[in-house]
Amino acid sequence: MEVALISGLQGLFLGLVALTPGQALMILVGCGLLYLGIRKGYEPLLLVPIGFGAILVNIPLADMMGKDGFLRFFYDFGVLTEIFPLLIFIGIGAMTDFQPLLENPKIILLGAAGQFGIFLTLLLALAVGFDKLDAVAVAIIGACDGPTAIYVSSKFAPHMLGAVSVAAYSYMSLVPLIQPPIMRALTTDKERKIVMGVAKRPVSKTTKILFPIVVTIFASILAPKGAPLIGTVMLGNLMRESGVVERLKSAAENEIANIVTLLLGLSIGATMEAANFLRAQTLLVLALGFIAIGLDTAVGLLFGKAMCLLTGGKINPLIGAAGISAFPMSARVVQVEGQKYNKKSYLLMHAMSANAGGQIGSVIAAAVMLSVLQGMGIIAG
Amino acid sequence: MATSVVAPMLGKVLKIEKNVGESVEEDDVVVVLEAMKMEIPVVAPVGGVVKAVMVAPGQAVEAEETLAEIE
To answer: Among B6, B36, B40, whose Cβ lies nearest the Cβ of A352?
Structure first.
């Protein structure tokens, strides 16, 4: 009887015995992500499920990513098929108001400039020896747009999904720390003090309805590989602007986006198994992702300086920093920085234009990258 | 000659920092607006005395709407 009891109690320690140091470390990483999400408020909607997923998947013997594990089910169902990020894109389209961009169309150029970091990082990742498809996934962190990064990496390098999405989401929340030093370094005091007038140009409802349709047709034909990305964002936006499918729009931006965010976050956390995540490569991904966002900011600012020059000093180059996609964080950073140097400078709306441009820009840049890589034979057709 | 303090963008009035009769220096915050979920301090373009405040907290304002006048 006593013997049976002791062996029975031993059963309770099986998990502890099986716990590897790697798993213990990853459970701590999961707790760290929870801390950032809960206490620091960094992207809690994603970091909470990701962090918790990372803890669950590293519990020994539970095997939740095993053949019949529930995390495996969500992952196979939504991530491997790319369904989750695409559903999120419909929600993002439904939430995004492109009015600031349509008010000031030339600012979309800043949104394009803000994507150069993606291409520069791609070259850098190839140079440091990443496999071609892995390099694509690393570079896409430079899109500074979570769902875009998740979509591209789940398509080409699903084993790196955890590292790529953690990098993408953490750097997005660190934008207020990453950008200001670069903004200061690349602009002159005089440039930073430029006051831009009130942005106000009426945009007709017809324009706002035509915009998603026209962008979808042209951008998708130009870069067919990116059609699912562009198409879903623009479908969401059309539902918003048309005003006739209020229920669908509301479901897309609320219920569907919320459910998918939960399942997507958990699935991403589930890719963070110790054996998969604790590799030197993960650190390299984090480092290159950081560089990518810095490069985006720098190119956006330099382009802003060029526009400043060409318009005879009417454009404050600081708004170039908002050309990255981190919406609306980077536009807020621009407003705060601008007002630091000149109290009478209100850059928010101009920065929002650049930021909305950056959002479309990152999706289009990803699409273009996919098509170019296909053309080069790096990815299959 | 009164100088207007105008809203730099569409938003909502959050706080009135300077009331009628108070003196302000150039660049002092007169009204705080909320736009895109962030606080935007709107400053006095010139120094002087606040002659009128046209808005109240909670009120929505258009871009270029006059918020206050300074003399």
So the answer is: B36
Task: Find the domain containing B55 and state its range.
Answer: 3-70
Q: What is the CATH number of the domain that holds B63?
A: 2.40.50.100
Nearest to A343 among B6, B37, B43 (CB): B43
pLDDT tens, N- to C-terminus, chain A (381 residues)? 677 888 888 888 888 889 999 999 999 999 999 999 999 888 888 899 999 999 999 999 999 999 999 999 999 999 989 899 999 999 989 988 888 888 888 888 899 898 988 889 999 999 999 998 899 999 989 888 888 899 999 888 998 999 999 898 888 888 989 999 999 999 999 999 999 987 667 789 999 999 999 999 998 898 888 889 899 999 999 999 999 999 999 999 999 999 999 999 999 999 999 988 999 999 999 999 999 999 999 999 999 999 999 999 999 999 999 998 887 889 999 999 999 999 999 999 899 889 888 888 888 888 888 888 888 777 775
Task: Judge whether A332 is closer than 8 Å to chain B, CB to CB.
Answer: yes
Interchain pair A348, B43: CB under 8 A: no
ipTM higher than the 0.90 cut: yes
Query: Does B39 contact A at CB distance below 8 Å?
Result: no
Helix, strand, coil % over all residues of chain A, rounded to 5: 80, 0, 20
Chain B contact present for A263, CB below 8 A: no
The rounded distance, in Å, linking the Cα atoms of A153 and A283 is: 16
Q: Identify which of A22, A32, A147 has the alpha carbon closest to the alpha carbon of residue A92.
A: A147
Domain ranges of chain A: 97-247+280-375
Mutate to test the interface with A, among B36, B37, B42, B61 (most CBs of A within 10 A): B36
CB contact under 8 A, B36 and A332: yes
**Residue A349 in contact with partner chain B when CB distance is under 8 A:** yes
Domain count across chain B: 1
Residue contact B40–A198, C-beta within 8 A: no
3-state class (DSSP) for residue B38: strand
Q: How far apart are CA A168 and CA A132, in angstroms?
A: 19
Max alpha carbon distance in chain B (Å)? 35
CA dihedral A361, A366, A368, A373 (to 10 degrees): 160
Chain B residues whose beta carbon lies within 8 Å of the beta carbon of residue A346: 8-9, 40, 42
